[in-house]
Specification:
The chain is α/β, with parallel strands linked by helices and 379 residues long. The chain has helices at residues 19-50, 56-71, 73-81, 110-120, 141-147, 157-169, 191-204, 218-227, 248-253, 276-300, 314-337, 340-358, and strands at 85-90, 99-103, 127-132, 151-153, 179-182, 233-242, 259-267. It has a seven-stranded mixed beta sheet, sandwiched between helices.
Length: 379
């Protein structure tokens, strides 16, 4: 395990946007876009569409390998290039578990730093987010989110219930590794949203929270209702930043943050009540604990028991980046300089991915449906 070392005054300064950082960040973003495009067209379509016609299980395995390799470029950017310290505290996460993760939503990039934990546990290709549907409209990245089976929501339960039910049912097979991530607040934290949330809490007799918004319970209840029998645990993650909450461009250019702290609390399914009312109360109590953790973090500068996970291997990060960039360069060469059929193939795949993402469509196995899911907790 890595030992936590308090930051020095020099660490507290926000790095200026120098020409060097701007150029480096622009190049990194270009590489991420280029590699995503090539991985989607040449590997994502084959693994997540064609192979899925034979088996969901093997389709997910193959997709996880290629897109897990691409997603691993992000922790490499954060920790190895931009030198951001990502410090984990609290409970250790065992390998091989199927889990539901709930986390506070401090800023627009919280979910990216969960990739750092997933990479350490060899689950980065199996992480599934429940995220707002507008993110699926992002160029290239939206297609990747679709291939990775993220669940898009409108944040209107009457609209989202059927989508969540359908997709959660497809995740129940215990043969498939799964890290399902939910942000119960439904949106990122701002002072204005906090004031509105506190006013609502006062009117309804609910806890008045200072560092988080009141959690929305419907999505969490749905996840537990559909997935409880196929999960090993729930993980409550609390995210704190030193010394300012970052934006997406802060991450790209390495301006901020200097430290990301993630506190992990492992919860067994037996600890969470089954009735809807009691589940809502449990989630509200959890967010009160989270609120207190963040207050303590603000005063102390760290969460309890830091150092739960070690650093990423520089050699493995370099080897992975080399593999992804090399494959992408070969694919780019074929697209530009090879036969016209490659250009036709790329055009058709892009058209398919655009339409499939827009309508949240995924093919079902027609040649091999696979075995029926087995409840591994009764074996």
């Amino acid at each position: 395990m890595e030992s936590y070392k308090p930051s020095t005054p020099a660490d507290e300064r926000r790095h200026p946007l120098s020409i060097q950082r701007a150029v480096r960040g622009a190049l990194c973003l270009l590489v991420l876009l280029l590699t995503a495009s090539m991985m989607l067209v040449y590997f994502g379509f084959v693994t997540a569409v064609l192979l899925r016609l034979f088996s969901n299980h093997y389709s997910r395995r193959a997709t996880s390998f290629f897109f897990g390799s691409w997603l691993a470029l992000w922790p490499t950017l954060f920790e190895k290039i931009n030198k951001t310290k990502v410090i984990f505290s609290g409970d250790n996460v065992p390998d091989g578990e199927r889990v539901l993760l709930i986390a506070n939503h401090r800023t627009e990039v919280d979910w990216m730093y969960l990739w750092d934990l997933a990479l350490r546990k060899a689950r980065i290709g199996y992480i599934r987010y429940i995220l707002k549907s507008s993110l699926m409209k992002l160029p290239v990245f939206g297609w990747a989110f679709h291939i990775l089976e993220f669940i898009p929501v409108e944040r209107k339960w009457e609209v989202d219930e059927s989508t969540m039910h359908r997709m959660l049912l497809s995740f129940k097979d215990p043969q498939d590794p799964l890290w399902l991530v939910l942000f119960p607040e439904g949106t990122d934290y701002t002072e204005q949203k906090c004031i509105k949330s506190q006013k609502y809490a006062s009117e309804k007799g609910l806890p008045v929270l200072k560092n988080v918004l009141l959690p929305k319970t419907k999505g969490f209840e749905a996840c537990l209702r559909e997935m409880r029998d196929s999960l090993d645990a729930v993980y409550d993650l609390t995210i704190g930043y030193k010394f300012r909450c970052p934006t997406f461009l802060d991450n790209v250019f390495g301006i901020n943050p200097s430290e990301v702290h993630i506190h992990v609390r492992r919860i067994t399914l037996d600890e969470i009540p089954k009735s809807e009312t009691e589940t809502s109360s449990w989630l509200m109590d959890t967010y009160q604990l989270k609120d207190q953790l963040l207050s303590d973090f603000s005063s102390r500068g760290h969460f309890p028991r830091p150092g739960a996970e070690g650093e990423l291997s520089t050699a493995k990060c370099l080897a992975n980046a080399t593999l992804v960039i090399t494959l992408s360069c070969i694919c780019l060469y074929l697209t530009i300089f090879s036969f016209v059929w490659f250009k036709v193939y790329v055009s058709l795949v892009c058209a398919y991915l655009a339409s499939a993402t827009a309508y949240n469509f995924r093919p079902k196995p027609i040649l091999y449906a696979g075995k029926a899911p087995v409840n591994h907790k009764t074996m």
